[in-house]
Amino acid sequence: MKSEQRSRLLYRRQYLYGPKVNGFTWWQHNTLPNGCELAVHPELEYTRVDDGPRTLAMLGYMLDPLHPQADNRQVLRGLLQKFATCEELIATLDNVSGRYVLFIFSGMEQYVLMDAAGLRQVFHYQDENGSMWLCAQPGLLQQVFMLSYSEEAQVFLNSPVIRSSHEPWWPGTSTPFSNVKHLLPNHLLDLVSGEVRRYWPNAPITRFGLREGAEKSAALLRGIMAAANHRFHLAMALTGGYDSRIVFAACREIMADLHIYSMIYHKLTTESSDIKVAAQLAQYVGKPHQVFTCDEPMDDDFEYLYTHNLEKSYQSYGHIVYGRFKNLDQRLVVVKSVVNEIARCFYYRTGIYPYRVTADLLCRLSKLGVHPFSERYFAEWLDDALVVEKYGYKLLDFFYWENRNANWQAMSQLEFDLAHDEFTPFNQRELLATMLGVDYRQRCMPKNEFQRELVRCNWPEMDTFPYNPTSRVLKKPLYEGPWMVPARWLKYHLLKRSTK
To answer: Taking the model in full, what pTM does it have?
Structure first.
């Protein structure tokens, strides 16, 4: 790899915002309406639309399932032309998909926010002069300001649970640096005051029956995939699970354009159900199925890029990123069937919900350990998130959405940006709200009724293939029943664990 090529791949698809960005000479440098500078890697799309005193500036891409042929500029212009206030504009973002960071300037108002799942991330920092800095990952700020790990973050990293974890993530808004914070999904950052506030949900949940919710969700997915197919050359990672099957079924009308592949890594082999079922699905639709391994050590050039591309505490998937970099055409945009876990009762998989959600419980469910650092940030998130219960949503669904998904899955996508840009069709707030509006007992294991209904709504034959045939099936305990509600009350009040 030539030195020029290596330099151009470093910090691939990342950005840095501040009063004046020095260096990064081969990046695109843009001056925003507030006079600040936004430096953007050449392979990260930047789109700006002005309408009098109002400006939208976007990093990444935005898709409108109702207008699948619209490009970034057309989507943004439509947003500006239809809505007069920031609140109205932000509300209509529920209906778009994509992976983006959006800057909003309207008179004295200046905000930044992200796509529904926060997959194009924002980390923010105020320097000693009170100036605001934003970036795609904390390593950029560490480089500019020579930041060091905070003492509490270092203790957290050295805790036994984190040291033994292969895929650790940072709780809540935390980062390794005390003054660098992570903006979470459903929140915006005021660029003038530095205040972070939640903007969604802002209305009661809409309830849907099983079929009604599946039909609406399936239609949204078809529109989202049609828009993505019009914009990109797509490669879909196919497995034997529910999530990729739902998306695969939604691709029925665009199947001819889709590149299908599967990766072998960790404990997977060519005989694993993820690979065998994916091959059967591809054969059924008459498509080639590319399978490649990701167990080869990184070469020196790529290892340098990977280890310097993002802050070291966020690095987990080097060999897999390298495998995809080497084996999959880099001009393709990869379809990842993630984020759907938000609606799959991830932290109460069999539908048994705890009596009360506490910071201590969140530490245990997250598997980050009951540690003062994680307790602190989960308690902060819990105080902010209690409003979602008022609107009829479940806290644990939002815990996955705004914590594990936003801190683990989003950083995973940033890791893979070194190989390919990624697209996640479930990353639309209207779709997520619709799925969460279906009774949780129909969204959970072991039957996964809603997920299978979603598949059937778009392509019934896809539901005849097995789902995760070799995986252990979780079942509800035989003793579960109405009398367990007071039992959980007693456990909470009388039998709480005292050991940490």
So the answer is: 0.94
3-state secondary structure of 103: strand
Long-range Cβ contacts of 45-52 (<8 Å, 24+ apart) = 45/72, 47/72, 47/73, 47/76, 49/73, 49/76, 49/77, 49/80, 51/77, 51/80, 51/81
Tens digits of residue pLDDT in 28-57: 999 999 999 999 999 999 999 999 999 999
Indicate if the pLDDT at residue 490 is higher than 70.
Answer: no
**Sorting pLDDT into bands at 50, 70 and 90, what band is 485?**
low
Output the CA torsion 94→97→101→103 (10° steps).
-50
189 three-state secondary structure: strand
Number of H helices, E strands in the chain: 20, 17
CA distance 358 to 377: 12
Q: CB count, 10 Å around CB of 451?
A: 25
HSE toward the beta carbon, residue 131, CA cutoff 13 A: 13
CA dihedral 7, 9, 15, 21 (to 10 degrees): 10
- Tens-digit pLDDT profile for residues 436-447: 999 999 999 999
- Write down the pLDDT at residue 5: 82
Beta partners for residue 423, in sequence order: 335
Phi-psi region of 130 (alpha: psi -120 to 50; beta: other; left: phi over 0): left
Write out the two tokens for 291: 């399978």
Say how many residues make up the chain.
500
361 sits in the region (left: phi over 0; alpha: psi -120 to 50; else beta) called alpha
Q: What is the pLDDT of residue 486?
A: 66
